[in-house]
């Protein structure tokens, strides 16, 4: 309630005058309201799923577990934000539960993004992308990474990155807006960029994207879809987070002028019309912090879930009534969203969060992994029928 009163009465004035200090204070207060949990006593029974689905622990002790990438050999690589580490999570005996969590690197600058290609692990820090060559042969011994590209901005605000290789063989790297709302170089901020695996040919693929921390390509059309976090301080219920689709390069998705396809920004909205920009495929919940997303390409889940989109909602940090802290499902009819519904809920209990989903990943057996940077674990969701 302290946060609520502060935001309503004087938050905007103080945020403009002392933005870094106030955001630090609010984040501290938020974390004081969040439970500290032990992996051995996680209340998994509170997670509610559709009939026939079950959730279990795939790995514990994965401090600050964020984005995930899987090698063809089955090694799960996990990035972090505040921990500064990158992990290899290994299931040695093939029983669908991790046997070992190995710290591959430490002391990095918010190494949130991980991607795997041709035996190498790519890791995104704030201002650069690294490559660990022949990584699976060196899991237990440290190796010096190669700097692929270090030309990205050094701004910490929305500077952490989610990275993946697209069907075109290019590595896609977003750069978030260095602010809540501002107008900065449109070729350098609030964009999704892409580059060749060797770090060359860096180019802007899409603009007007405040902060995406999750994207995937449609398994049939190969078009890029991504989540985007809406701005703060327009109220509890505005604007929404977004699910967007970019069928070709060069599209603009509205930031900082327009939010949710139709909401003109009070500061920048007079400069451009919402009709000039690509509208979201689906507006998501306001302030839910929609992060990782994947098309479901497995066969374990029923037919109705195949080629539909799962989204990890990390959860609000400044909403009067917390929202998010769940995994949602967007059902599609071709390239049109027809529903947006909860799939896994229960990390929020009595207004406090004991876990925060970050990323989702479809395993070869069709199960769905979910990372949690609050409980320091990775869950596995299966369907038993």
Q: If you had to describe this structure to a student in words, what would you say it looks like?
A:
The chain is mainly beta and about 375 residues long. It has two domains: about 1-35, no CATH class; about 40-385, TolB, C-terminal domain (Neuraminidase, 6 Propeller). The protein is about 10% helix and about 35% strand. The chain is built from two helices and 29 strands. It has helices spanning about 1-15, 20-30; strands spanning about 55-60, 70, 75-80, 85-90, 100-105, 115, 120-125, 130, 145-150, 165, 170-175, 190-195, 205, 215, 225-230, 240-245, 250, 260, 265, 280-285, 290-295, 310-315, 325-335, 335-345, 350, 350-355, 355-360, 370, 375-385. It has a five-stranded mixed β-sheet, with no helix packed on it. A hairpin with a 3-residue loop joins β18 and β19 (about 265). The chain is globular. The termini are far apart.
Biggest sheet, strands in spatial order?
A: 10-11-12-13-17
What is the CATH domain class of the largest domain? Mainly Beta
Mean pLDDT: 92
Bulk shape: globular
CATH homologous superfamily assignment of the largest domain: TolB, C-terminal domain
- Number of β-strand runs: 29
| Name given to the CATH architecture of the largest domain | 6 Propeller
State the end-to-end CA separation: 43 Å
Regions with little confidence, pLDDT below 50 for 5+ residues: 1-21, 30-35
CATH T-level topology of the largest domain: Neuraminidase
Structural class given helices, strands, pairing?
A: mainly beta
Number of domains: 2
Rg: 20 Å
Largest beta-sheet details: 5 strands, mixed
Number of H- or I-type helical stretches: 2
As a percent range, the share of strand residues is 35-45%
**Helix percentage:** under 10%
